[in-house]
Design a protein that fits this description.
The chain has ten helices and two strands. The two termini are 44 Å apart. The protein has 221 residues and is an all-alpha fold. It has two domains: 182 residues, no CATH class; 34 residues.
């Protein structure tokens, strides 16, 4: 779900930076709610087959090699990797094109307008955040998507103890890297965006004041 939300947010940014008013009208909260609901319903319904093919074998919840596992690998490769990762990259590239077109148009109209420059700077930072997060998400996700089919297609091969240990270590490392993808958004935003850092610092100062300067005198007012 986290990756799908990233895709939807990237798609929303792509629509909001479009020069065409028809596409910009879809950048609204009601449309975002409908699109989010439809997307979540689709993935919830389409993944029901996992309840059927998964079972407990030797105390482990997994699937056995067969048709069900093949369907699972194909489904995961397409809907959990190719579609969201490819969609984020495509929307990111289109957003970059829109931002460049907007910047060129703004430079021609008014190169000295401070408010225009502020909007331009904000759009550039938003694009950087989207593109960096999408790029890292693809890298961290693809390595996982390569390892899982490899383990499936080589599961019937007799492997040495050393090879099994190496594959186990790679699997654990892949799991850690894949999990990091869902927790690096804050650090990416803080490192890449001065606007985000400024907003975060203001929010933290406000929170600290509320936590440490709220006494009986304040409650009386």
């Amino acid at each position: 779900m986290a990756l799908n939300c990233l895709l939807l947010s990237t798609f929303d940014r792509c629509l909001s930076t479009s020069r065409n008013a028809y596409w910009r009208q879809f950048c609204s909260i009601p449309f975002a709610k409908r699109l989010f609901t439809i997307t979540m319903l689709f993935f919830s319904i389409s993944s029901i087959f996992c309840v059927i093919i998964y079972d407990t074998y030797n105390g482990i919840c997994t699937t056995l090699p067969g048709l069900g596992t093949i369907i699972l690998v194909i489904y995961a490769s397409i809907f959990l990797s190719l579609v969201p990762h490819g969609g984020v990259l495509i929307c990111g590239i289109i957003t970059w094109i829109h931002v460049r077109q907007s910047r060129n148009r703004i430079d021609i109209i008014s190169a000295s307008d401070q408010s225009t420059r502020a909007v331009q700077r904000m759009q550039r930072q938003l694009f950087i955040l989207i593109f960096v997060q999408a790029f890292l998400g693809v890298i961290l996700g693809v390595q996982r998507d390569i390892l899982m089919p490899y383990r499936f297609f080589t599961s019937s091969i007799q492997k040495s103890v050393e090879r099994q240990q190496v594959e186990y270590i790679l699997l654990q490392l892949s799991t850690i890297l894949y999990t990091m993808k869902f927790g690096i958004s804050f650090y990416i935003h803080y490192a890449c965006s001065s606007m985000f850092r400024k907003t975060f610092q203001i929010s933290m100062k406000s929170l600290m004041k509320r936590c440490f300067h709220f006494g009986p005198h304040d409650r009386a007012h």
